[in-house]
Amino acid sequence: MKVLLLYDYPPSPGGLATQGDLLREGLEKIGVETRPAPFEGAQEKEWYYRWFKPDVVVGVGWWGHVPDIVLHPMRFGMPVVPWLVADGFVANYHEVLSSLPLMFATSEWVKETYARDGVDVAAMKVVPIGCDTDVFRPIPRSDPRVKAVRDSMGVGPDEKLILTIGGDAASKGAQEVMQALALIGKDCPNWKYVCKVWPQARTDRQNREDMQMARQLGLEDRIIFASGRFTRKFVPYLMNACDIYTAPSRLEGYGMPMIEAQACGKPVISVAAMGMLDTVKHGHTGLLARVAQEITIAGTTLTPDMGYRRRKDIAFPQPKKVAVRADVNDLAAFFKRLLTEDDTCKNMGAEGRRNVQENFHYIQVAERVASELADAFGLHVP
């Protein structure tokens, strides 16, 4: 079996790059001849088609990437399998996606999103994103690399560190987290909440709004917004610096940091919706708050990056659910429990690591992908 992988390559710290790079590494380790290529690199992709002659091309992205990860290899007669994430309303490329003999989705919710918006998902298989549990593993608080993370954040040795990682914090549910923490401040005095976000103009504006909320809640001395670039090498130490990982995300097709946190032996607090239903076991590896509010939209704007020549506003026949808000009272009860019950944190963390090792290890994901490719295209698995 020869596989050409199209993704964000060379890999950046972003989620799509991690998704593709772990699949590449996993396929190589099980003996599949694999080559990675940048999904937007037309000439390099054609070069691989001509000399490598892959049996199948697997592309990682959202539906807006279809021209690069599906249509381009199809023009050269390549069998194609996209591994798709969700990004709001699926507005284009329904016919070509519905015609494919095999597609992958990162979660049941992602698959449901494509079906909701008109794609025939009969050939779509749910395959989770893998995790390297040798890299993401429990590391003692005494390790100087972990201690240095906490020191750099201004978190004391006797304080509990609650962590959220994201492009911005609000989309990961940080405002709901702050509201919940404000409810239990007197009962649980020794904690800091760190939001590690990616530097960008949108995030800077959002950070200011979030900090305004923190001041209004009287939490400004406990909330830390750490904005800056970081590599994948740093993340395992950041995860191990925390006591609780939280992301009751408003919109989340998978939630890779929640898998990585579990692999590091950390309990997770999130919301019972979307991709988290696949990745977090409520009461065992973490706690999932009820959905307090569903956000719907009556229409959207189609843009050139969606494959349209010009911007166009459309209205839906029926409103579409596009996001959620977690129940703040549930979150408050969960934080109070985990901030005061060390044994519960330890037990959930241990079960979380077992969950990732048994269900999300990147080698297992690669084996699943190779098996599905073999069945769909009559290929030999090494």
Q: Top keywords for this entry?
A:
globular, alpha/beta, 14 helices, 382 residues, six-stranded parallel sheet, Rossmann fold
Plain-language structure description:
The protein has about 375 residues and is α/β, with parallel strands linked by helices. The chain contains 14 helices and 14 strands. It folds into two domains: about 150 residues, 3-Layer(aba) Sandwich (Rossmann fold), CATH 3.40.50.2000; about 220 residues, Rossmann fold. The model has no long low-confidence stretch (mean pLDDT about 95).
List the helices and strands and how they pair.
Blueprint: E1 2-7, H1 15-29, E2 33-38, H2 42-51, E3 56-61, H3 66-75, E4 80-84, H4 94-99, E5 103-105, H5 108-116, E6 124-126, H6 144-153, E7 160-166, H7 174-183, E8 191-197, H8 201-216, E9 223-227, H9 235-241, E10 244-246, H10 256-263, E11 268-271, H11 276-279, E12 286-289, E13 291-302, E14 312-326, H12 328-340, H13 342-359, H14 362-377
Parallel strand pairs: 1-2, 1-3, 3-4, 4-5, 5-6, 7-8, 7-10, 8-9, 10-11, 11-12
Antiparallel strand pairs: 13-14
Helix pairs in contact: 1-14, 6-9, 7-12, 10-13
